[in-house]
Design a protein that fits this description.
single chain, alpha+beta, 19 helices, about 40% helix
Length: about 625
């Protein structure tokens, strides 16, 4: 048993005052070293300060020890052979209580000072009595500045509400929790708080003041605003994706019909020029829709080898639209081709996010430059990349620069130095994610007041053999196979059918996935299915699944503005299905159709030819 548990001990005496029995607690409190030696001996022989044997009422004696005082009380007993009972009781002296109070106070002070919440107390007159370190950090006043001074945190417009709350806590003795309000800092700025309070009582239970725990909501509000902004941007992205989808269908018809007109050999030169102008405008609209699809993040990730120089120059017009006229845009490309393997739409995201970041750093204008080059990285500077030649995109602005303490965090998701509601903190995180996903790395160098430079390194890709042996761009591949078009938009369905028939194919059409499955179940044999994605009853994703369950090797091309279905996106990105981005031109349709048909297993093609030969002979 510990010291605190030894409060009372008992000793039994016979009629002569000799010890019959005593417990260990009595021995400890009375200071008896050998309890067994006490049996049969008079208690007075061992304890000179033991109380006298009483005749009637109890007798008492008290001994002041070094650590505590002990009181012995002797009473008569009536159960033979026990004649007297002596109890020993520990008494707490003032020094013990003071020491325990001091330890308790030190513990409480440590907890209060270590608390991340601002903790303070005020007296009946609203004067500050206690003010912890978190309060100093939150509000700016030191403990010495506010101790004994009137409570300084209440702005003028909050005084009536504060008086009501103070009366509730101090006058009525009722605390409250979770009340949100605004308080003022030493520099005059305001801070949103969540307050938890309780009355302070004296020994008689009278209210002497109040205490408050104040939770700074600044970081919480920033996170909430970022989430709201992200949700808003997601909603805008969905809206942009929906608009892009509708425009893609319209452009598919416009561009398709123009392609058909261009195939008309009897078209007059003047009419052909008009058609060419319509196609030019249609292709410009297609670029705009592609940017909307990039913004809504609904494009399929399809890495391919592209010339970084060519892509950067193509994106220059888009970048100029993003920037204020006070910002000069410079684009310098290397004199050699710079092949890299990535998704062009992802590269556009990198360009846009770096442009937006630079524009924010140049509110009064400046210069933004994009430059490409080849850099050979040595082993000691390549980490985490491999040593050797890399394509380098350098993006430099003449803006405000990035502070040294901020620089390590700029690629962290949701990290932003912008005001609440002005940014998601995802732009540079997206840049870093895209570049790393494509095997590259990003470096940044910045000097406050001078500007910032980003270097994007990407592996130098090998140019595919077919890219070097170019075929005639004017050649349009044709065929005679049977193709099933599945499309719920009447105009798109009719236009696509006419384009394929112009190319020599046999065409069947269905208005949705259910209609297509009924046709296949009825015996229709096709060599290729060209399907939209979003359709009533059965959509493109479910149609692909059911067709492949029936005929695993049947080629399917999804023709849509985006791939919303996660499962179908995986099918396309892993090469088990093909994707054709709307709006589709005659050349794109011809090339994709021919590639899908030629990629079929050879025995499938032989069976098809044999079947067609049999039908011809019959």
């Amino acid at each position: 048993m510990d010291e605190a548990g030894r409060e009372v001990g008992v000793c039994l005496l016979d009629a002569d005052g000799s010890v019959i029995e005593l417990d260990a607690d009595f021995c400890h409190l009375a200071g008896l070293a050998q309890p067994a030696a006490m049996i049969g001996r008079p208690l007075h022989a061992a304890l000179a300060w033991a109380p006298a044997l009483p005749d009637e009422g109890p007798t008492r004696s008290r001994h002041e020890g070094k650590e505590f005082a002990v009181e012995l009380v002797c009473r008569r007993a009536s159960t033979a052979p026990i004649a007297y009972i002596v109890t020993a009781r520990r008494e707490r002296n003032e020094s013990t209580l003071a020491r325990q109070l001091r330890v308790a106070r030190q513990t409480l002070d440590s907890v209060i000072e270590a608390s991340p919440l601002a903790i303070l107390t005020v007296d009946h007159d609203k004067r500050v009595v206690m003010w912890n370190r978190a309060a100093e950090r939150t509000f700016g006043w030191t403990h010495e500045e506010v101790l004994g001074e009137p409570y300084p945190l209440v702005p003028a417009d909050e005084l009536p509400a504060f008086e009501r709350l103070f009366d509730q806590v101090v006058l009525q003795g009722e605390g409250f929790t979770g009340v949100e309000s605004t308080r003022v800092r030493k520099d005059g700025s305001r801070v949103d708080l969540r307050m938890h309070t309780a009355p302070l009582l004296d020994a008689e239970g009278r209210v002497t003041g109040g205490m408050a725990l104040l939770e700074d909501l600044t970081h919480t509000r920033e996170l909430e605003e970022r989430v709201r902004h992200s949700q808003k941007m997601e909603a805008v992205g969905r809206l942009a994706g929906g608009i892009a989808h509708d425009f893609n269908n319209l452009l598919t018809v416009v561009i398709g019909m123009c392609d058909l007109l261009e195939c008309d050999e009897e078209l007059s030169p003047q009419s052909r020029a008009h058609v060419s102008e319509i196609l030019h405008v249609g292709n410009s609209a297609r670029e705009l829709i592609a940017q909307l699809m990039t913004f809504s993040r609904k494009q399929v990730v399809r890495p391919r080898v592209v010339d970084l120089n060519h892509r950067l120059q193509e994106s220059g017009k888009m970048l100029r639209h993003l920037l204020d006229k006070s910002i000069e845009l410079q684009i310098e490309v290397a004199r050699v081709r710079l092949p890299v393997k990535l998704d062009p739409s992802q590269f556009d995201q990198v360009l846009v996010n770096l442009a937006v970041n630079a524009a924010d750093a140049m509110p009064r204008g400046g210069r933004l430059s994009y430059a490409t080059s080849v850099r050979v990285l040595e082993a000691d500077e390549a980490e985490p990349l491999e040593a050797g030649p890399h394509v380098c995109l350098t993006v430099t602005d003449t803006g405000t620069g990035i502070p040294a303490d901020v620089l390590p965090h700029i690629f962290d998701p949701f990290f932003t130095t912008k005001a609440a509601g002005s940014g998601t903190g995802l732009g540079l995180a997206n840049v870093y994610g895209v570049v790393r996903q494509n095997g590259g790395n990003v470096e940044v160098h910045s000097v406050e007041g001078e500007g910032t430079s980003f270097r994007v390194y990407l592996p130098l890709a090998k140019v595919p053999a077919q890219a070097r042996s170019r075929t005639n761009k004017r050649t349009i591949p044709r065929g005679s196979e049977r193709i099933l078009i599945v499309e719920d938009n009447d105009s798109v369905r009719v236009t696509t059918a006419k384009l394929l028939e112009t190319l020599g194919y046999q065409v069947n059409t269905a208005c949705d996935g259910a209609d297509a499955l009924e046709m296949v179940a009825a015996g229709l044999e096709v060599d290729l299915v060209l399907s939209d994605l979003a359709m009533p009853r059965i959509g493109g994703a479910e149609l692909v699944k059911r067709l492949h369950e029936r005929t695993p090797e049947l080629p399917v091309i999804i023709m849509s503005g985006n791939l919303d279905a996660v499962e179908l996106r995986a099918e396309v990105e892993q090469g088990r299905a093909r994707f054709l981005q709307k709006p589709v031109s005659l050349r794109q349709l011809a090339r994709s159709t021919r590639e899908a048909l030629d990629a079929r297993p050879k025995h499938n093609q032989e069976q098809r030819l044999a079947r067609e030969s049999g039908e011809a002979l019959a």
